[in-house]
Amino acid sequence: MNYQFFTRKQKGTPQNQPIPGREAEMIQGRSGGWMFDAGLWKLLRRCLLIGTAQSTYYAQKRELTDDFIDVLKQAVDTDPGRVASEIVYASNGRSINNSAPLLGLVLLSMGKTPEAKEAFRAIFPEVVRTGSHFYEWLSYTKSLRGFGKIIQDVGTQWLSREDVKGLAYQLLKYQQRYGFSNRDALRLFHVKPPTDEHQQLFNWVVKGWNNYLPDEIPSEALTQIWWYEWLKHHPEQTHKAIKKGHLTHEMAAPVGKMDKKAWQLLFNEMPIGAMLRNLGSLTELGVLRADEPENIDRVENVLNDVNRLKKGRIHPIDVLKALKTYQSGGTLGRSKKNWQPVPRLVEILDKAVELSFDIAQPTGKVFLHALDISGSMSWGVVDSVGLSCCEIATAMALVTAKAEKNYTIRGFSTKFINLGISRKDSFQSALKKSSDRNFGGTDASVAYDWAIKNQV
After folding, report:
1. pTM for the model
2. CA of residue 284 relative to chain centroid, distance
3. Name one GO cellular component term (predicted).
4. Among candidates 93, 157, 73, which has minimal Cα distance to 121?
5. Please, what is the average pLDDT of the chain?
6. Which residues contact 352 (CB under 8 A, 6 or more apart)?
7. Which residues contact 424 (CB under 8 A, 6 or more apart)?
8. What's the confidence (pLDDT) of residue 57?
9. Sign of the CA dihedral 60, 64, 65, 67?
10. Residue 218: which residues within 8 A CB-CB, separation 6 or more?
């Protein structure tokens, strides 16, 4: 019996211990393992892009969001201008939705310095683009800080914007969300109408036209509102109101008599995001049928157009989610309807998935993309998107492959192997390469070991 076990130089440090001499650079994760601290700004970007509204294996969403708030507060105190840039970066079609950037916006408004207030004011219209965004921002603001002067200023500016027609569209389409109505918003901010058209719009919001419908449309800006109110009095003429007023399904469906023809008229002008979300419903209603190719052609012209995908801020995960949901016939996703998928629509969605990868702008940097291929990656699906972790991770790896010139994509479990995924792969071929290897434990350190040994 001797002490060679103690004096012999160790080849590596166990994951449950920090590396001797580098303790100050490392933190302990929730699983008990030690890792290098990513730093404030990388953590902020991760939280803004991915969000913390879903629980993970090791932490509940409340705990994750508490950490997100702490990161935001520290970042705002350090450099509010940089926080503003990160919020806009995430909100511009990069985050999974706009909720995390909106939460970040509220925390930025709570900064104690004039620089933080000015940064908040400057980016507000870039982040709060729709009525839904506006109500969600109001909800977070009410819960976290209250409605002080700067909130009054930006809220008033948003509700008195020069584009009255665009404002009317938002206030009609999104009449109520997150516990706030358009009437609540106007009363909260005491907005003084800058023009006669604003005055007419605000009168409709506060008082409505339930007992009085003007004989003529008051102005071009209020055209949709007039037809919406006209439809309330003439629900049997839903088709006319949709066609003349260019009403969306959010406007027509609650007050009109919705039949196949009504949905056909809505489909004719449906924007790309709404089309992706409603393919199943449109199939169930008979608007999308294999024996009526004209409508299928329109879906193809919209979803297989790279420029429309880009303009609509459509993320590859959005298209992949739509494909999986539609293929399932209603068994996946939140829809309560069932439908028989049209094969050609599945093909169109499959192509849209591939095209969506071409939207990402290259950075010109060199990437080592380490993809988790451990066994748990193929267990079940993420409820919010209807996709497995393996599908989501593969999609994001393929974004790298399609956008960048200098990259390597490898997979880690307890080993680190070359997956052979390249820009030539389709999503399905890339998924096969990653899912065929879904086994073993999870050891992310093997990726770093490989990078160090190969001087990457």
Report:
1. 0.85
2. 26
3. cytoplasm
4. 157
5. 91
6. 303, 304, 309, 319, 322, 323
7. none
8. 66
9. positive
10. 200, 226
Q: Does a structural domain hold residue 198?
A: no
Q: For residue 375, what is the domain's CATH number?
A: 3.40.50.410
* Cβ atoms of residues 98 and 106 within 8 Å: no
Name the token pair of 236: 């049997």
Tokens of 125: 């219209």
Tokens at 298, concatenated: 């329109």
Domain annotation covers residue 360? no
Query: 435 lies in a domain?
Result: yes
Joined tokens for residue 99: 């909720």
Q: What is the pLDDT of residue 28?
A: 84
Torsional sign, CA 20, 26, 28, 32: negative
**What CA–CA distance (Å, rounded) separates 221 from 205?**
14
Calpha distance 27→73 (Å, rounded): 20
pLDDT at residue number 9? 66
User: 418 is in which domain, residue-wise?
Assistant: 367-453
- Which regions in the chain score pLDDT beneath 70? 1, 3-11, 57, 383-384
Within 10 Å of residue 377's Cβ, how many Cβ atoms?
Answer: 23
Torsion-angle region of residue 179: left (phi > 0), alpha (psi -120 to 50) or beta? left
Between CA 183 and CA 317 the distance in angstroms is 35
Q: Which two tokens stand for residue 43?
A: 């953590």
Residue whose pair of structure tokens reads 């004039």 in the numeric block? 114
Please list, in sequence order, all residues whose beta carbon lies within 8 angstroms of the beta carbon of residue 403, skipping any fewer than 6 positions away: 357, 360, 361, 362, 363
Q: Is 415 a member of any domain?
A: yes
The residue type of 399 is V
The confidence score (pLDDT) of residue 7 equals 65
| Cα Rg of the chain (Å, integer) | 26
**Number of domains present in the structure of the chain:** 1
